[in-house]
Amino acid sequence: MPEAFCIAYKLECLRLLAGKPVKLALYTNRANLGALTEAYSPENEVSGEGYEAGGQLLSGLTISSKNETAWARWSDAVWPLSKITARWGLLYRSDTGSAVRVVDLSLDGGDVISNNGEFRVALPSSGRGVIVI
Q: Tens digit of pLDDT for each residue in 57-76?
């Protein structure tokens, strides 16, 4: 029988996020974010109408599983009537500053722009959650 983490443990790990404040901060294309990012930093964070430094508190955490995969996701983050130019997003625990996940906002490798409109970050769902284990 192959070795594997059990689904019950995966779900338990993800449930540690329940009740924890997680924010999504937006960054310019100059940001150096990746798997080794340890914490939130204001360096190269976007600025613009409708956006506050530190990003937006996420809500609607759901934790699900299917077969051997477990995932966590939050509701989409929306900045209405904003002027934002962003390339990256960083999910982080706002109580500790600890980085959770870097999100590539672009489908084509370029910036995503809102100009007096809605800036929406559609977070992955159903088996492609923000955090998948």
A: 999 999 988 888 898 999 99
Look up residue 133 and give its DSSP letter. Answer: -
pLDDT of residue 80: 94
Residue listed under structure tokens 């990746």:
34
Q: Are 102 and 37 in contact (CB under 8 A)?
A: yes
Q: Is 57:74 a contact under the CB 8 Å cutoff?
A: no
The span from the CA of 77 to the CA of 2, in Å, is 39
